[in-house]
Structures are given as C-alpha cells and as structure tokens.
C-alpha cells in the first residue's frame, strides 16, 4: 500500500483538504504524541447532507434560528480536524498539530481526554445509515497521509472512546473497508469490528 509523502503537510494542514479554519481549538499538551485517529459521523440537521451547516457550526457562524434542531445545540462550540462529505470532499478545520474539540469525555486503552492526543475525522452521515464509497476512498487517502506524518497507532470510533454517551460512526460504518489499511499500518482497532479479528 503506497504511503503519502510528508510534503503534503504544512504546519499541520493537509494539502489534500479544503481549508475552513475554525476558532475552536487549543494547544495540545507538550510532548504528547498524536497516536489515535478517531472517527465520528455528523449531519446538520440530522439526515440532511450537502449544506453549509457543518462549516457554520465549526466556525461559530451557524444561525441558531434557521432550523428547530439548532435550538438544542445553541451556543455549542465544537470542531474536528476533518470532515469527509458524502461526495468524498475533505475539509480541514483545525491544524493536526492543534487540539480540536471533538471527543469530549473519552477514554481509549486506559488513557483519558482523547482530544489531547487524537485527530478527529467526521464522516458526513447519520448513525446507523451507510456511508458512500467516495467517503471510504477519501478516508483511505487521509489515513495514509496521517500515517506518513504522525505516529498514529490506533483507529477507533467515537462510540468506542465514549461508550454509552456516543454512538457514532455507528453500525452503518463498514470497518472492513479500512481493515487492510489498518492492518498494513500495524494499528490497533476496537475489538470485534473487523472480520476475524
């Protein structure tokens, strides 16, 4: 499996993504390596795709009065490093060298506060619904680029680091579509998500 060249990165920004900088980030703790890629799913409003609302949420420009659902998230300040649209378009909101606000209370392999040492990747979709082939293609490319520049050791879902609190990316995400990449990179993954793991 080919590796993406490190030259695709500049100060934590990936050249393969559309940039839409978010103000919602902080510094990572000094000396903490980035070892986890963390998958999520998102759609705004839930089940609606292709609109500007994710960009606006992550840049604090969402009109809370535009849709009834937005009233329940009014004032929320969140971000992720990346979002992969249904068409496979990758948008980056936060430098991977910085701490995005995507995981909340979370634990992976006995370590808390996954935001400190993870890269958040949102797939445009709804928990329980399937994702598009173009999203898996884009995810593979992004994960290879991350592997070339960051010491990633694991790939997990939000549901695995915040069980009972979060359900994404959910049963519609086909882990086997990224299984060969995970194994080729020598990464760890949540138990039971890959065939014959």
UniProtKB/TrEMBL annotation:
Known cofactor(s): Zn(2+)
UniProt cross-references to SUPFAM superfamilies, sorted A to Z: N-acetylmuramoyl-L-alanine amidase-like
Tell me where in or outside the cell this protein is found.
Cytoplasm
Q: Which Gene3D superfamilies match?
A: Peptidoglycan recognition protein-like
Q: Among its keywords, does the record have Zinc?
A: yes
EC number(s) recorded for this UniProt protein? 3.5.1.28
Task: Write down what this protein is called.
Answer: 1,6-anhydro-N-acetylmuramyl-L-alanine amidase AmpD
Which species is this UniProt entry from? Answer: Ideonella margarita
Encoding gene, per UniProt annotation: ampD
């Amino acid at each position: 499996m080919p590796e993406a060249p490190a030259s695709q990165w500049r100060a934590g920004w990936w050249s393969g993504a559309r940039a839409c900088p978010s103000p919602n980030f902080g510094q990572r703790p000094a000396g903490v390596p980035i070892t986890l890629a963390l998958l999520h799913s998102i759609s705004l409003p839930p089940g609606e795709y292709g609109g500007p609302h994710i960009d606006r949420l992550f840049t604090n420009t969402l009109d809370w009065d535009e849709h009834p659902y937005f009233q329940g998230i009014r004032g929320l300040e969140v971000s992720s490093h990346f979002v992969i649209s249904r068409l496979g378009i990758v948008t980056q909101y936060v430098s991977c060298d910085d701490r995005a606000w995507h995981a909340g209370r979370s634990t992976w392999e006995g370590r808390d506060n996954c935001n400190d040492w993870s890269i958040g990747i949102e797939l445009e979709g709804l928990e329980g619904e399937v994702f598009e082939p173009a999203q898996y293609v884009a995810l593979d490319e992004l994960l290879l680029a991350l592997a070339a520049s960051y010491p990633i050791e694991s790939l997990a879902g939000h549901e695995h680091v915040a069980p009972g609190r979060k359900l994404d990316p959910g049963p519609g995400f086909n882990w086997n579509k990224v299984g060969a990449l995970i194994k080729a990179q020598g990464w760890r993954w949540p138990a039971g998500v890959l065939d014959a793991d």
